[in-house]
Structure formats: structure tokens, C-alpha cells
């Protein structure tokens, strides 16, 4: 298949592109930055930016003959709390996604796989969160949740008659190069604690997420939203096992710690529809699963 992968130079893309190539697909990667230079041989690079106002026309031309578009573009800020930190990501999710979809329709691409996040769900406590769970209405999380909702709505609204679409809601990525690196560093320093009221966290190794993307590409599932997550863990359990794995001091609890939004995400639908299951686990690369 001819796969056009937007934003596939990042953490996910570095896992996904070799997998797609290994499965015999013809891969084109679009991104705006220098990381295009590090793509594996045999991949065509398109240096373009989804926030460029003329991008729809450029993309429409690039998408001629493409079988499936994978949209993994994102711009998560380094400092979540900095003023305007989420602006670029919001624009990418809202306007960028619409531009991709307009180009997909104009070029007659038959399928699109859109990345999304389980992070948008409301706190579910100890309840399992399926794809029918509500997004978080808390205004304090609006800058994260509202663009995700708008992005998914744009995909759903393309219908499904002309374009087979799927949305993969990924749990928090773990593995080398993900936010797990910073958690491990803080555990080693002894500066990371769980909040006593923390309940569940849902994680997925980025390598496992990549296999779900490949399955969605190849199976061409349509009109589906799927959670992609490993088995949820209690936050304290996860941090404790990660610390133990790294020989770091056992993290305690502190009421000063930021309380995690509890996400006990069910990926039963993906396991069935995509015949997918996580194989790497949520401990650092190369180690056995928890
Ligand atoms: N990280 C997580 O925990 C997590 C969890 C679940 C789902 N996801 C989803 O998985 C997808 C991939 O995430 P990731 O962790 O691989 O992100 P990442 O490492 O930050 O990579 C982001 C990608 O988007 C590209 N990009 C940035 N701005 C762009 C623009 N204006 N136009 C086009 N492309 C642009 C980047 O290109 P450059 O090389 O130029 O920077 C890069 O290829 C995203 O949709 C994300 O929401 C992430």
C-alpha cells in the first residue's frame, strides 16, 4: 500500500515507519522539520507544514495515488503551563486536521487513520473507560480536551461513504524518547511522589501503539474509534515498579503531588477489531513486561 504519514518523524513515527517498510508498504513522510533528514532509506520526505495556509493544495497534489493517510502530527509543548503553550498544538488539531481531510477528499484518498489521545477522558475513578466514555468537561483541562474533541468531530463528519476512517486514541506513551524518561529521572532523584488519592493510569509502549497503527492501515477498519492501551495500572503500583526496575528509591505519596486524572482505559474493542495486543509492556525498552 502507498502510505502517506504526516508527522511521522517523531516518537511514534520513528517506530512506525520501519514497521510499515518491513511490511512492504511504500511510505511517504511529511513533516516541517530537520528530522526528515533522519528517515530510513527508501522513504520519500515531504517538507511541509500543516499550519501553512496554502497546505491543502500542496497536500492534494502530494496525495495523488495514496491508499491511506496516517495523521500523527502534534506539537505537545515542553512546558504545559507556559503562556500560550498549547496554541500550536490546538491549531494543528483543529485547522491542521481539517486541511488534511479536505486534501484527502479532494485527492480521492480512500482511507485515513487519525491519531488521538485517551488523555481527553474525564476522571473515571475505578470504572473502565470504553470509547463511549465522556471527554472531560472541566474547563481547567479545556486547552487539552477541546481541540481533541474538535479534531475527532472533523474526522467523524467525513461520513465514511467515500473515505474509510478510524481514530486511534492512544494512552500515554512510554518507552525511550517519551515522557517516561523524565519520570524515571525524577524517580532516581527521589523527587517524584504519587498523590494519595491517585487511582489508575493507562499507558502504552510506543512500539505497541505503532503495531496498532499498522493493523488499522492494513485492515482498513472504518467508522471506528478505538482505545489503544496496555493494561491499566494503579499509579502507585506503576511508579513503584518503575523505581524498582531502575534501582531508584521507592516513591512515597504526598498531598503536595499533582493528583492524576484517573484513566482505567479499556482497549477490548481494539484487541478484537484489530486483533491487536501489546507485546512490549510498559517497563523501559528491552525489559520484560510488568
Ligand atoms: N506522546 C504521547 O504520549 C501520545 C499518546 C497518545 C497518542 N499520541 C498521539 O500520537 C501522535 C504522534 O505523537 P508523537 O509522540 O510521535 O509526537 P512527536 O514526537 O511530538 O512528533 C510530532 C510529529 O508532528 C510533526 N509536526 C509538528 N508540527 C507540525 C506541523 N505544523 N505540520 C506537520 N507536522 C508537524 C513533527 O514534525 P517535526 O519532526 O518537524 O517536529 C513530528 O513529526 C500524535 O497524534 C499524538 O497526539 C501521543
Automatic annotation (TrEMBL):
<dbReference type="InterPro" id="IPR051783">
    <property type="entry name" value="NAD(P)-dependent_oxidoreduct"/>
</dbReference>
<dbReference type="GO" id="GO:0004029">
    <property type="term" value="F:aldehyde dehydrogenase (NAD+) activity"/>
</dbReference>
<dbReference type="GO" id="GO:0005737">
    <property type="term" value="C:cytoplasm"/>
</dbReference>
<feature type="domain" description="NAD-dependent epimerase/dehydratase">
    <location>
        <begin position="6"/>
        <end position="228"/>
    </location>
</feature>
<dbReference type="InterPro" id="IPR001509">
    <property type="entry name" value="Epimerase_deHydtase"/>
</dbReference>
<dbReference type="InterPro" id="IPR036291">
    <property type="entry name" value="NAD(P)-bd_dom_sf"/>
</dbReference>
<protein>
    <submittedName>
        <fullName>Nucleoside-diphosphate sugar epimerase</fullName>
    </submittedName>
</protein>
<dbReference type="Pfam" id="PF01370">
    <property type="entry name" value="Epimerase"/>
</dbReference>
Amino acid at each position: 500500500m502507498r502510505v502517506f504519514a504526516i508527522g511521522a518523524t517523531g516518537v511514534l513515527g520513528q517506530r512506525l515507519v520501519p514497521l510499515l517498510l518491513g511490511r512492504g508498504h511504500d511510505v511517504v513522510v511529511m513533516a516541517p522539520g530537520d528530522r526528515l533528514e533522519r528517515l530510513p532509506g527508501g522513504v520519500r520526505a515531504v517538507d511541509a507544514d500543516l499550519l501553512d495556509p496554502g497546505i491543502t493544495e500542496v497536500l492534494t497534489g502530494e496525495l495523488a495515488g495514496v491508499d491511506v493517510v496516517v495523521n500523527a502530527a502534534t506539537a505537545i509543548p515542553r512546558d504545559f503551563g507556559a503562556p500560550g503553550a498549547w496554541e500550536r498544538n490546538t491549531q494543528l488539531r483543529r485547522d491542521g486536521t481539517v486541511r488534511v481531510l479536505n486534501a484527502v477528499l479532494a485527492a480521492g484518498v480512500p482511507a485515513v487513520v487519525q491519531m488521538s489521545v485517551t488523555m481527553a477522558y474525564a476522571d473515571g475513578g475505578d470504572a473502565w473507560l470504553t470509547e463511549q466514555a465522556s471527554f472531560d468537561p472541566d474547563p481547567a483541562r479545556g486547552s487539552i480536551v477541546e481541540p481533541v474533541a474538535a479534531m475527532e468531530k472533523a474526522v467523524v463528519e467525513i461520513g465514511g461513504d467515500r473515505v474509510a476512517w478510524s481514530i486511534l486514541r492512544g494512552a500515554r506513551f512510554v518507552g525511550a524518547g517519551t515522557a517516561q524518561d523524565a519520570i524515571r529521572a525524577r524517580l532516581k532523584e527521589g523527587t517524584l511522589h504519587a498523590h494519595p488519592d491517585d487511582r489508575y493510569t493507562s499507558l502504552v509502549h510506543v512500539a505497541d501503539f505503532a503495531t496498532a497503527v499498522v493493523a488499522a492501515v492494513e485492515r482498513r477498519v472504518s467508522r471506528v474509534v478505538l482505545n489503544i492501551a496496555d493494561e491499566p495500572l494503579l499509579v502507585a503500583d506503576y511508579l513503584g515498579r518503575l523505581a524498582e526496575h531502575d534501582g531508584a528509591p521507592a516513591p512515597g505519596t504526598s498531598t503536595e503531588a499533582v493528583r492524576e486524572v484517573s484513566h482505567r482505559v479499556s482497549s477490548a474493542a481494539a484487541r478484537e477489531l484489530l486483533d491487536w495486543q501489546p507485546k512490549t509492556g510498559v517497563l523501559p525498552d528491552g525489559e520484560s513486561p510488568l
